[in-house]
């Protein structure tokens, strides 16, 4: 697959490394060039410095040929906007959007995006940990 990832924080860099290791073509977009230091040594994907909400930046990143787009910046609104652009303007088939606010996650999902809320998943995992016997000693 050809994948464009907006955001090179802890999650974006991890996704990029894992997909590239599996043989996928990966392009990472971040507004801050220093964010690319999170990518592993020898990362073979492309790095694009720019705003992932900007059409020209997405074009440089190869969005027209992308099979998938990940929006994983720290900003829910940025992720939503870029996801909508990738899906509606560029016709990317799979668009995955990280959303911290569980209320927004539901709204964005209702608008047709594939969403992931670390807040919701994290809360459920913590509750499951509390209510079940510890697996480690």
Structure description:
The mean pLDDT is 95. 33% of the residues are buried. This protein is globular. Helix content is 40%, strand content 20%. Strand 4 (68-71), helix 3 and strand 5 (94-98) form a beta-alpha-beta unit. It has a six-stranded parallel sheet, sandwiched between helices. By secondary structure, the protein is an alpha/beta fold. The protein starts with a strand and ends in a 6-residue tail after the last helix. The chain is built from five helices and six strands.
Record the SSE blueprint.
Layout: E1 2-6, H1 10-21, E2 25-30, E3 46-49, H2 55-60, E4 68-71, H3 76-89, E5 94-98, H4 102-110, E6 114-116, H5 118-131
Give me a quick take on this structure:
The chain has 137 residues and is α/β, with parallel strands linked by helices.
Structural class category: alpha/beta
Number of strands: 6
Low-confidence stretches: none
Separation of the first and last Cα atoms: 41 Å
Apparent shape: globular
Highlighted features:
single chain, 20% strand, 40% helix, 137 residues, globular, alpha/beta, 6-stranded parallel β-sheet
């Amino acid at each position: 697959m050809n994948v464009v990832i907006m955001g090179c924080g802890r999650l974006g860099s991890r996704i990029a490394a894992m997909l590239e290791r599996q043989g996928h073509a990966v392009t990472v977009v971040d507004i801050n060039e220093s964010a690319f230091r999170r990518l592993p040594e020898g990362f073979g994907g492309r790095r694009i410095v720019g705003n992932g909400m900007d059409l020209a930046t997405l074009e440089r990143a190869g969005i027209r040929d992308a099979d998938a787009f990940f929006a994983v910046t720290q900003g829910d609104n940025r992720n939503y906007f870029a996801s909508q652009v990738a899906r509606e303007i560029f016709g990317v088939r799979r668009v995955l959007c990280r959303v911290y606010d569980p209320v927004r996650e539901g709204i964005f999902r209702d608008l047709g995006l594939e969403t992931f809320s670390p807040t919701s998943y994290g809360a459920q995992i913590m509750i499951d940990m509390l209510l079940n016997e510890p697996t480690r000693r």
